[in-house]
Q: What sequence folds into this?
DNA sequence: CTAAAACCTGACCAATTGGTCAAAATTAAT
DNA sequence: ATTAATTTTGACCAATTGGTCAGGTTTTAG
């Protein structure tokens, strides 16, 4: 039952004991969430059918509705996993860390993320493009306050003379845009590098390019690989 | 009849004479294409219904099918307009132009584009996210050869000692990602800057930030507004 | 072992969807 | 003015969709 569950860990409801009360619920919910993420990423909200999700999860359609009620609820559950993931990524930016190192690490982690969980990125991108109708509060509350908190870190770096002043919102926007691009627009990038699928090396080069631009853009010394 | 047509010029079939043979065809096709771009951008391919497109165009649904046959054909027509637009943008990058100036101009033009035609950007983003199933040839032929051509321009700049070497594919990827982000993720950026809608000034600051990072990333002198 | 709780699912349904069509209305050409 | 070509559209259809439900099976608790 862990064909899918081991490949991509969806957090919460996975990797529990194989038996015991509720283990069926846990297993099937994880199965459905995984399938739903795939179908929502490939087809968009409206394009995803509960039948397709059920089929990919290897369960009858009625079972999907048994666990999640409506497609809307299921979509929000998928989104919740993704949003939680999104928020936990900025932890490495702290006041006393080295800006160049911290930013480089963050960018590289985001690129790894684009390679390993492109579907999550695509579901999120789809949601934003369509106006964040299921996510309004997340943006205005959680994400905004997180960015505000991290903005203070950047300001402290500037105050400590560690880097040049820069608008934090635009800095984060560029980082997110550039890194997530390699998940969301993978087909385009792959076509341009002349491969059907991008290699790990392609992703590394992408990360290096982004790190180079961001660090220099902040007046930071770009250490390795820059020559 | 030009309420929509004047606001956003869709190229081909607009701004013809008000009378004469075929003028109805021209007017209605433009009306439908405009409406279709809106609905496809907001709802995605599958989420867009021909009925919704027809309603927004102010025409009965059967009329939409009269002009475009199928939803698929209509979608491709919308996409064709956008792809043509995409290709025409890189003209200002030529061998004998100044790299800093040319790149800055290009980035600024792309950001203006994100502000003025966000719907086109969103339809395109949606198409890429879903795997470019209607656009495969464009990527592998048109876009790839264009990028190859422009890569030679960059190489010539490097050879002339005007800038540092950089992987062109990743450079373009970062530029496209960062600039289009302000159209595709407008709700997110707007939430972060604390506005419901971004202002012209927000877009200008975004462009400046991107220009600063890209130019410095290429070892170019970032002239104005950097300080 | 037994009863309750949890889980399963084929069959079904109302609503929506992309698309068709034939008859009517309008516009163009002679 | 007459004919031909184009345009319009309400009515219709088969297929798909999200969702329901009743009656079943399996799992769990005491």
A:
């Amino acid at each position: 039952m862990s064909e899918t569950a081991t490949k991509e860990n969806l957090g919460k409801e996975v990797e529990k004991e194989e038996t015991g009360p509720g283990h069926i619920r846990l297993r099937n919910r994880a199965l459905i969430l995984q399938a739903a993420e795939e179908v929502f990423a490939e087809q968009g909200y409206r394009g995803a059918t509960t039948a397709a999700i059920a089929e990919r999860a290897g369960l009858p359609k009625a079972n999907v509705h048994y666990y999640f009620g409506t497609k809307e609820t299921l979509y929000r559950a998928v989104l919740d996993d993704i949003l939680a993931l999104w928020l936990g990524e900025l932890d490495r930016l702290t006041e006393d860390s080295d800006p160049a190192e911290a930013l480089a690490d963050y960018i590289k982690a985001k690129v790894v993320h684009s390679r390993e969980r492109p579907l999550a990125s695509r579901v999120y991108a789809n949601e934003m493009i369509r106006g964040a109708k299921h996510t309004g509060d997340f943006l205005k509350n959680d994400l905004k306050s997180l960015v505000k908190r991290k903005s203070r870190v950047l300001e402290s770096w500037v105050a400590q003379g560690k880097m040049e002043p820069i608008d934090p919102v635009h800095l984060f926007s560029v980082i997110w845009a550039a890194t997530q691009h390699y998940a969301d627009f993978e087909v385009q990038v792959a076509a341009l590098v002349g491969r059907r699928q991008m290699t790990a090396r392609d992703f590394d080069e992408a990360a290096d390019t982004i790190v180079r631009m961001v660090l220099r853009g902040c007046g930071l010394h770009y250490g390795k690989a820059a020559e």
The first helix of chain A runs from residue 3 to 7. Chain A touches chain B through 52 residues (CB under 8 Å). Residues 1-16 of chain A have pLDDT under 50 and may be disordered. Residues 20-21, 24, 49-51, 61-62, 65, 69-71 of chain A lie near DNA strand D (CB under 10 Å from a C1').
